[in-house]
Design a protein that fits this description.
Blueprint: E1 5-6, H1 8-25, H2 27-46, E2 52-53, E3 62-66, E4 69-75, E5 82-88
Parallel strand pairs: 1-5
Antiparallel strand pairs: 2-3, 3-4, 4-5
Helix pairs in contact: 1-2
Length: 92
């Protein structure tokens, strides 16, 4: 199983997602949502070829949907981790 690392920006985004989800739907839903983000991040780490190419944003960048967010990933050369960042494409 490959590993992944969320960037500091992604961690801040995830904290906002947690706060919003807890406030709107409660702790249980927030836990389920964060687990789904982690599952998709692991899927991307294990399968680096999947996702939509976003080369117009950055060379080698891929996006993959996770509920109402996108996870962006870019395999770093000579590294065994992915820097991933979750962006909301709805609103919160």
């Amino acid at each position: 199983m490959a590993s992944y690392v969320f960037t500091e920006k992604a961690e801040r985004d995830i904290e906002k997602i947690i706060d919003y989800t807890v406030g709107r739907w409660g702790d249980s839903q927030a836990i389920q949502y964060i687990e789904s983000l982690q599952e998709v991040a692991q899927l991307l780490a294990d399968n680096p070829e999947i996702g939509m190419k976003r080369d117009t944003l950055s060379a080698g960048l891929l996006s993959f949907p996770c509920q109402s967010h996108l996870i962006l990933s870019n395999k770093q050369s000579r590294c065994e981790y992915y820097q991933s960042v979750a962006f909301k494409y709805g609103f919160y």
